Amino acid sequence: MSNNVIPLSHLSVGSSAMIIRSEVPPELRQRLTELGFTPNAAVSIVFNSGKRLICKLQSARIGMDQSLADNIMVTPLSE
User: pTM higher than 0.85, yes or no?
Assistant: First the structure.
């Protein structure tokens, strides 16, 4: 596992990572937690256009814009 912490938005399609933290307001952090975006959760990128992305978290696919993904910090996992 890499020690690099990067924004979720920097991952390419097919990449996987472990969520470290979210740097968002408390109300949004609560919603992300409800969706499963918690520390140590695994996430993978299904689609990334640079403006929007779709990630897979557990068995769900979740879409978001780049500005949100820029504030979810992850550590890339080696394949």
Answer: yes
Largest CA distance in the chain: 33
Is residue 53 within 8 A of residue 9, CB to CB? The reply is yes
DSSP helix/strand/coil, 1: coil
Nearest one of 69, 79, 77 to 10, comparing CA atoms: 69
d(CA 55, CA 11): 10
Please give the average per-residue pLDDT across 13-24, as a whole number. Answer: 96
> Token pair for residue 9?
């938005």
Got the DSSP string for 4-71? --EEGGGPPTT-EEEEEEE-S-HHHHHHHHHHT--TT-EEEEEEE-SSEEEEEETTEEEEEEHHHHTT
> How many Å apart are CA 12 and CA 32, to the nearest integer?
21
